[in-house]
Design goal:
single chain; mainly alpha; 18 helices; 0% strand; globular
Amino acid sequence: MQLAHHFFDILSSTVGITCLVMVMMLLIEFVNVSSSGHLLEKLRHKPFWQVVVASLLGLIPGCIGGFTVVSLYSHRLLSFGALVAGMISTFGDSAFLLFAISPQTAPALLASLFAVALVAGFATHLFLKDKSFYSSDMHTLEVHEAHEHKQGSASLSWRNIKSISFARAILIFGLALYLTALGTGAISHEHGSMPQMEGQTALAGHHHTHDESCEVHQTEADHHHGEEEEHHLHGENLVFGLLALFTLVVVLFCSEHFLQEHLWEHVIKHHFLSVLLWTFGVLFALALLNHFVDLEHLIAENHWMNWVLLFIALGIGIVPESQPQFIWIYLYAAGVIPFSILLASSVVQDGHGALPLLAYSRKSFLMMKAVNIVFGLLVGLAGFAFGF
């Protein structure tokens, strides 16, 4: 069965996403405590800069920026408006595909997303600043300043590795396993299969006949795209590996108090299982849906009016997955849809970036998606009105 064939890929993606989210949360915990809470607390009380920082983080290609925004929000260091801004500016792994097949479009899309993210973030904060969408399970970062600094709890020392507790051993083993899996390719943040439409090439708007020279050109283009995709994957894995390596250093040399009180109690025990189960559940449900309904080809084979495509794009953008977004990039590159539909879809879509949010706060996820759909619709309607 095809679904059973993809089970290992789903499990691999689940583990990879969960590990990366945990690494980001561990690092945020370390930065917060090592700076006595002052560094991130400054961000907490500056909503303007929260929106700007979240919007910039979202522009990072791939999901790492989205994961960072969600991690900061889960610690109540970002407002809901900043969360909205960060999720608007990010569109996950689709950024890599866009840079590969239409590099001239990528800067315009990123600049447009940043502008929309700022407007949406400020507007959301202005109108919803008195509303709280935090889950009761979400917690603020704790510092215990007076007690902890006497013990140097967030400082690193080689003496701390002399006695390895159970929690430290588990974290060391887990991080070492994650680094090994990244290095060997056992875990990789795959971009998934990309839909290939008939007659389409990397050159937007160019039409070719099916003669031998065009077939050779298509093969060369596909090979080039494959090399670009592999290059981006290696780059992502390198970044993930460096973050995990630094986290391993922190785990090895931090004090036992900091490790037990913050890394183990506040991060691993509080978040690991919920992020793992929610991520697996959503990815498995999406695979099950795709097994019975091929959404990408369904959309590709039904080139209806732009109004219909706009609403379909907004609806598909709700799915916390990058692959459905690929179809809009291909349709735009082929000259089938206007830029406004691609932009509207990107506003709503956030790749895997919002997956951990489902584990932290379902209410925040649903409200964030609702707000982003509103702004995505406004962007699409403005595009139709002004002809872009």
